Amino acid sequence: MDVTLSSKRYIMACCCCDLMFEATRADQLTCSGACRVKAHRNGSLKTLRDLAESVDLKPGMLLQAMAAERLGFGDLVKNNRMKLDGDIRVGQAFDKRVMQFVEMMN
Length: 106
Prior knowledge:
The chain is mainly alpha-helical. Helices cover 53% and strands 8% of the residues. It has 5 helices and 2 strands, in the order ββααααα. A two-stranded antiparallel ribbon has the order 1-2. Strand 1 (10-13) and strand 2 form a beta hairpin. It is globular, with a radius of gyration of 14 Å. The relative contact order is 0.17.
């Protein structure tokens, strides 16, 4: 079996449960299939898409911005000094936070 590794990582906030996750695609809006179904049923996917359309952005970019804000990159994003589309610094900060959590659990 061949494995293709992507150089881009998309760290997002799930539009349903609001937890951060690593997406495999830039247009992935939920962390799991269960959240996707729940978000569709409760209207949060529609709300996200409507909001994204009103500010002329893709929904995934809004979720990446939410994750970047939580990871301490909000000012860089707001001042256009960081592009969100798979920025390596966001992925590294996410990894660091995950490792801190794992260490706390041990």
